[in-house]
Amino acid sequence: MRVDTTGRFVALATLVVVSLLGSAYALGRSMVPGPARQATGVSASADDPSFADQPAQGGPGRGGAPPAATDGPGAPTESGQDGQDGGTAQPPETGGDGLFGARVTTGSAQVALTFDDGPDPQYTPQVLALLREHGVKATFCVVGENAQRHPDLIQAIVADGHTLCNHSWHHDELLGKRSTDVIRADLLRTNAAIRAAVPDAEIAYYRQPGGAWTYPVVSVAEELGLIPLHWTVDPSDWRAPGAARIVRDVSAEAQPGSIVLLHDAGGNRQGTVDALRSILPDLAARFRLEALPTGSA
Question: Is 117 annotated as catalytic?
Answer without folding.
Answer: no
